[in-house]
Every structure is written in C-alpha cells, then in structure tokens.
Amino acid sequence: MDNNFSKEQMAELFDEVSNFFFLLSEPTRLKILHCLCHGERPVGEIVSAIEATQANVSRQLNMLFRAKILARRKDGTQVYYRIDDPATLEICQNVCTRVASNIMGRNGAAKASDTFNVVHTS
To answer: From its phi and psi, is residue 108 left (phi > 0), alpha (psi between -120 and 50) or beta?
Structure first.
C-alpha cells in the first residue's frame, strides 16, 4: 500500500476492493467466468453450460459487464460475452486452483491446476 494515501483515500480504496470481492462472491458469476475462460460465447451457451435460468444469467452478465470484467457484442439477435479483464480472471484462477488443491488434497487427488487451465484473452 502507498503510505501517501490519506485516510479518506484508504477508506475509498478498501470500499472499492470490498465491492470487487463482493462481485466475485456469487457462485453464478464465478461459473460464468469459468465458462468464458476459453473464449467468447453467446448467452444461450452460457445458460446451458452453467445450468441456470436465462433471467439469472442475464442479470449476472450485466453486473460483470457494468464492472468492466466482461465485454459484449451483438451479432444479429445473438449477444456474445467475453472476458475483458484478464487480471480478474487470473485472480479467480489462482483462488480456484488453491481451493481445489485443498479439496483434492483432502480427497487424495492431485493436479488441481489442470482443472482451471484457461486461455488468456487480451
């Protein structure tokens, strides 16, 4: 942390960090990010892949889009989403890999990192 920040700036920083982690605390949003880690997909594919309702997926996609984590484009009647913030994806990948390692370690399995391999987008 930068010691040149005022108390007010530090409070704002911690509020923003808290909001960021709150955004990532919803399992459906994490499933969406996992679904998109290999590239762009239309909404219908995301809905099918994560087995959630269209309304819920649309709501979560919109939240991730407004937070500038996802980008979207329209092609005819289809709306496609892709990860627009590789740093957020990397955070999720690191945390998921760590948690998966703990789970797999308890269950006697190995190679948790293979579970969350992603294609980095730019």
So the answer is: left
- Please state whether 110 falls in left (phi above 0), alpha (psi between -120 and 50) or beta: beta
**C-alpha torsion angle, residues 15, 34, 51, 104 (rounded to 10):** -100
User: What residue spans of the chain are helical by DSSP H?
Assistant: 7-23, 27-36, 43-50, 54-66, 86-107
What are the φ and ψ backbone dihedral angles of 68, each rounded to 5 degrees?
65, 25
**Rounded Cα distance, 24 and 92, in Å:** 8
User: Cα-atom radius of gyration of the chain, to the nearest Å?
Assistant: 17
| C-beta of residue 67 within 8 angstroms of C-beta of residue 89 | no
Q: Is the dihedral of CA 79, 29, 84, 41 positive or negative?
A: negative
Amino acid at 87: A
pTM over 0.70: yes
pLDDT, residue 2, reads: 58
